[in-house]
Amino acid sequence: MGTLLTIGEAAKVSGLTAKMIRNYEQSGLIRKSPRTESGYRLYNSEQLNQLMFIKRARNLGFSLSDIQSLLSLWQNPERESRLVKQLAQSHLEQISTKIAELEQMQQVLIKLADSCKGDTSPQCGILEQLAQSSI
Fold first, then answer.
1. Residue 4, domain member (yes or no)
2. pLDDT digits (tens, 9 = 90+) for 38-68
């Protein structure tokens, strides 16, 4: 089992906050940690690796549900890599859709910004166009 870390130490090492660690424990992403007589949570190296795995997956934008699936696959030596790839590809498709939506929003906002003189007059094309039923 190795060295046990308090939640504060685990937070420092993993780059997560203690609040997020408690949240991941409560949601079942990681198993509940044993506690000292005074009630302090203690985390072993396996749990620490799981926390760092979760942080990296969150940084890539995976949902908690997807992270649960990825953790299960990671911990299963009999896993099929195609399942892991399917999860990653599905997430990539979601990201691509979001990028397209953001690019469309960017183009509309560029046009809106260009329609406003930005001077001391009260006239502003941005507000006028936002007040219309379609942009």
1. yes
2. 989 999 999 999 999 999 999 999 999 999 9
Q: What is the pLDDT of residue 90?
A: 97
CB neighbours of residue 116 within 10 Å: 15
Q: Are residues 39 and 87 in the same domain?
A: no
CB neighbour burial string for 35-50, b if at least 16 within 10 angstroms, e if fewer: eeeeeebbbbeebbeb
Which residue range is the domain that position 35 belongs to? 1-61
pLDDT at 72 over 80: yes
